[in-house]
Amino acid sequence: MSTAQHIDIDWTACQGHGLCADFLPEHIVLDEWGYPLVDGAPVPAGTVRRARRAAADCPVLALALIPGRAGREDGGEVSRPRPRGRRRA
Fold first, then answer.
1. Which letter does DSSP use for residue 43 in this model?
2. Does residue 84 have a pLDDT over 90?
3. Which residues pair with 9 in a beta bridge?
4. CB-based contact 63:9 (threshold 8 Å)
5. Is it the case that residue 51 has pLDDT exceeding 90?
6. Please, are residues 34 and 28 in contact by the beta-carbon 8 Å criterion?
C-alpha cells in the first residue's frame, strides 16, 4: 500500500521562477508575482513522475514531493510567501 504524495514548497528557497507550474499546471498555478500556489491535493500516481521531474528541475530545489498531507496540519490553506519588493502602507 502506497502513501499519497503531496507537493511541498520551501518558501525560503523559492524565487518564483515558475518552472513547477509548467510541469504541473493541474496542481500549481502562479500568483501575480510568479510564486507557486499549490492546490494541496494528493498527486495522482500517473502524475508522480512529472512531479519528481519538476522537483529535480527547480533551479533552487524549492519543490519537493513528500508522503502524507501537505500544508497545515489543521487542514487550512497552504501558506503563501509574502512578495518581495512591496511594502505595506
1. B
2. no
3. 63
4. yes
5. yes
6. no
